[in-house]
Specification:
Number of domains: 3
Number of strands: 12
Order of helices and strands: HHHHEEEHEHEHEHHEHEHEHHEHEEHHH
CATH class of the largest domain: Alpha Beta
Radius of gyration: 22 Å
Strand order of the largest sheet: 10-9-8-7-6-5-4-1-11-12
Structural class: alpha/beta
Distance between the termini: 63 Å
Number of helices: 17
Bound molecules: S-adenosylmethionine, iron/sulfur cluster
Helix content: 40-55%
Oligomer: single chain
Shape: globular
CATH superfamily of the largest domain: Aldolase class I
CATH architecture of the largest domain: Alpha-Beta Barrel
Length: 426
């Protein structure tokens, strides 16, 4: 076994061969990658090392659309799609991973579709384990059936199963998601029974809610259900996009429900993540209960998830806070695009900086990421704190929020130049 110091020395003496070896062995990640990046950072004064800067820019997490174009539901805040279902075939997943060898975590997302509709789920899990990758899911939970539960137990994937429950009350759920939630809740308890029987701890369950006028009153019940399920956490997002006028803030009692849920969460030792801006309002109005315990979130989710915890809601770029993290809000700020360690990849391999920013960074099927100049240049700009004009429209992004609060004029790249060129030519 190679020690960290030996790996660092090997890298310095024959970088190409070390990188190739790590890629072949699917281990250009975790500790190995950290050692190499540290060594590289120490050597950057010498321009000979600049050709390896891509090692720093490649992402640790893929937010990967694995199913597209069809959903079993048509929820109020999304609509779902009703076309011919597309999904990523196992051989294509393997190809994508080969082109992004630094992947440590994949979040299976599905645009306006449902990731658990994927008929190749067990094979995907097998491939992920072969590559030493952990997965997280955002799912409506309607396919928590015997077959999928068995696959999850066998492969111990996903690490984190985020179920978009939105409401426990059947009528409210029916109004929002146009379906019956009995099956979803039963599936969650079935999963727990199966985990217990097999003596395994994964997947960890999280309950998600898009907060709306009529479901925010359900929040204390979510906390109770999370406790009954020994779930990792409850996570609430704002409602976004064209649907944002129906957000929970139009319910005049939203503060009351949140405070009740926070108090119950403290009592039951459940982690409750609420949108940062709502938590700040409660803090300003002196309504926040006093935190009594340390959040179990970091230990439970592991290093990668804990660092990137704000990606875990249904919508990326949203910043959430718990009672414990509210005291660290200043530390949570980045001064940079919060997705520097991630990319969003659509069903056809198209790369975006995050799921809210439709800027094109090339295609992961076509080109290995370290040879993709578009990707490398874009990320270099992001790493300098520069963004694209469109980013400013994503008001849920923590960095955009920071810029707006501090009234800092963002430094734009690419789009601005392109616009200037277009202006000059017309
Ligand atoms: C689009 S869904 C896809 C995955 C899966 N079908 C599900 O419902 O979880 C991903 C997440 O986005 C959330 N979502 C859908 N529309 C939204 C909106 N307008 N604003 C905020 N979140 C939304 C869903 O509740 C879900 O948690
Ligand atoms: S929120 Fe999820 S389940 Fe509902 S329609 Fe959209 S994609 Fe489908």
């Amino acid at each position: 076994m190679t020690t960290k110091a030996e790996l660092a020395n090997l890298f310095k003496s024959n970088a190409d061969s070390v990188i190739n070896n790590l890629i072949i062995n699917k281990s250009l990640k975790g500790v190995h990658r950290n050692v190499i990046i540290d060594t590289l950072l120490d050597s950057l004064d010498d321009p000979v090392w600049h050709e390896y800067i891509w090692l720093i820019l490649l992402p640790r997490r893929l937010s990967l659309v694995t199913v597209d174009n069809f959903c079993n539901l048509a929820c109020r805040m999304c609509g779902g799609s009703k076309g011919k279902m597309k999904w990523i075939k196992p051989e294509n997943l393997t190809k994508l991973l080969g082109h992004c060898p630094t992947t440590e975590v994949i979040t299976f997302v599905a645009g306006n579709s449902e990731p658990m509709l994927n008929p190749d789920l067990p094979e995907n899990f097998r491939i992920l384990n072969e590559h030493g990758i952990r997965s997280t899911f955002v799912t409506n939970g309607h396919y928590l059936n015997r077959k999928n539960i068995a696959a999850m137990i066998e492969h111990q994937q996903p690490v984190s199963l985020n179920v978009s429950l939105d409401a426990i009350d059947q009528k409210i759920y029916q109004d929002i998601r146009g379906a019956d939630n009995t099956k979803v809740i039963k599936g969650l308890f079935d999963l727990n029974i199966a985990k217990e029987k097999a003596g395994v701890g994964l997947p960890q369950i999280s309950l998600l809610m898009v907060g709306m006028e009529d479901n925010i009153s359900e929040l204390p019940k979510f906390v109770k259900l999370a406790h009954d399920l020994s779930a990792l956490r409850v996570h609430v997002d704002h409602m976004l996009g064209n649907y944002s006028p129906g957000d929970f803030t139009i319910n005049p009692r939203w503060r009351e429900y949140m405070v009740e849920a926070l108090e119950l969460a403290e009592k039951l030792d459940v982690t409750l993540q609420l949108p940062l801006d709502s938590m700040q309002i409660l803090q300003r109005e002196d309504l926040l209960p006093k935190p009594e315990k340390k959040s179990p979130l970091k230990e439970a989710l592991g290093e990668v998830e804990a660092e990137e915890e704000y990606h875990d809601g249904g919508s990326c770029g949203i910043k959430a806070a718990t009672l414990e993290t509210m005291s660290k809000v200043e530390e949570m700020k980045t001064g940079l695009c919060p997705w520097l360690q991630d990319i969003h990849v659509d069903i056809d391999g198209g790369i975006q900086p995050c799921c809210n920013m439709p800027a094109n960074m090339g295609n992961l099927y076509d080109t290995p990421l370290w040879q993709n100049q578009n990707f490398l240049q874009t990320r270099t700009h992001h790493a300098k704190g520069e963004i694209e004009r469109l980013c400013m429209k994503n008001s849920n992004c923590i960095y955009v929020q920071e810029l707006k609060v501090k009234k800092v004029r963002p430094r734009y790249f690419r789009k601005e130049t392109i616009l200037r060129k277009i202006d000059q030519n017309t």
